[in-house]
Design a protein that fits this description.
Strand order of the largest sheet: 1-13-12-11-2-10-9
Number of strands: 13
Radius of gyration: 22 Å
Largest sheet: 7 strands, antiparallel
Oligomer: single chain
Shape: globular
Length: 338
């Protein structure tokens, strides 16, 4: 067997712990660093009915928009930047031919091999030198509008802080734009085997508690509805819950699918922390967020190797005392999460 086939793909899991009410906690900053999320799931053991405040937070998760046949040059006009962009960059991941035709400055992709076949172009939309009529702005606009026009379908989301002004729906009214609502599903898992966890011990201890890696693997099985029975006759999975574990009568699972912006995830995370404000049977709960597999970046501006794999996700384990574990995972072609 060739060596490259015998090697398992590289995957990376980074774990850290903190306390949600510590003044130096960076849990919200980590959420903001991961901007492009397509699925959010939370699992609450020993829960049959959600509090009304959590229901309201989920209902207020917000719309996103599908704009068809949108020319990229419209995203670098100052009308668009002034209306919607306070701080941000346009990042393009293009093949070698498109890169050469555009003639814009970029860098070879870190994951394109010795012979660069893909390039990354980064345009700072709010840079002081990118003002109207500047040479830099005119060149970018000319390259994207005339030299190599690029047109795609886009998903757009916008966090409106309440200020008056244009909306995405009205701004792109001349385009084919459609408002979409995230899909929300609830399910009750019965007699669920759950790992025993200790908030102060990421590594776990034999016969006392499970490790963060074991929890992460178990949660993946639960979210993907993989049986935990370890049945030898199963052709799909012989996976079982790590030990030690306990059986909970009911667990509530909620999944939100769409384009979910970080600000809404932070609001949901805060309400999940508040869930333990009153005595609960659950010792911990989880919040799992998946990024788009084909996003050009994962965390911050870190290049995402979406052409091989595409995994980029993070998971919070929030404990009753508001300690938390943060698990950040990427696939074969990604930088280490921050």
């Amino acid at each position: 067997m060739p060596a490259q086939l015998a090697r398992a793909p590289r995957h990376l899991l980074v774990c850290e712990k903190g306390h949600a009410r510590h003044p130096r906690s960076r849990h919200a900053a980590h959420v903001r660093d991961h901007a492009y999320s397509c699925r959010v799931s939370f699992l609450i053991p020993e829960c049959a009915l959600l509090p009304e405040v959590l229901k309201s937070t989920i209902a207020d998760i917000g719309e996103y928009y599908l704009v068809r046949n949108l020319s990229i040059h419209e995203l670098v006009t100052h009308e668009f930047i002034d209306a919607f962009v306070k701080k941000g960059k346009l990042i393009l991941s293009v093949d070698k031919d498109t890169y050469e035709e555009l003639g814009l400055q970029g860098r070879p992709s870190r994951y394109s091999g010795k012979k660069a076949m893909r390039y990354i172009i980064t345009i700072d939309l709010t840079d002081a030198g990118f003002h109207p009529e500047s040479k830099k702005h005119n060149r970018v606009l000319w390259a994207l509008k005339e030299k190599k026009p690029l047109e795609f379908d886009f998903l757009l989301a916008w966090y409106n802080t309440g200020a008056e002004g244009s909306t995405l729906m009205s701004y792109f009214s001349k385009n084919q734009i459609q408002a979409l609502k995230p899909k929300i599903t609830f399910s009750t898992l019965r007699d669920l085997q759950c790992p025993v966890l200790q908030s102060n011990d990421l590594q776990g201890k034999p016969e006392e508690s499970c490790s963060t890696e074991e929890l992460f693997e178990w949660l993946g099985a639960v979210l993907n509805q993989v049986s935990l029975d370890n049945n030898s006759s199963s052709f799909l999975s012989t996976y079982c819950c790590p030990e030690p574990n306990t059986v909970v009568e009911k667990a509530l699972l909620c999944t939100i699918t769409g384009f979910i912006i970080p600000e809404k995830i932070i609001q949901l995370l805060e309400q999940l922390c508040c869930y333990f404000g009153e005595p609960k049977l659950a010792y911990w709960l989880t919040l799992t967020v998946h990024g788009f597999a084909d996003s050009p970046v994962s965390w911050r501006e870190s290049e995402h190797g979406f052409h091989k794999g595409g995994e980029n996700l993070y998971n919070f384990v929030i404990f009753r005392n508001l300690d938390y574990w943060l698990q950040m995972a990427v696939g074969a072609h990604d930088d280490c999460p921050p």
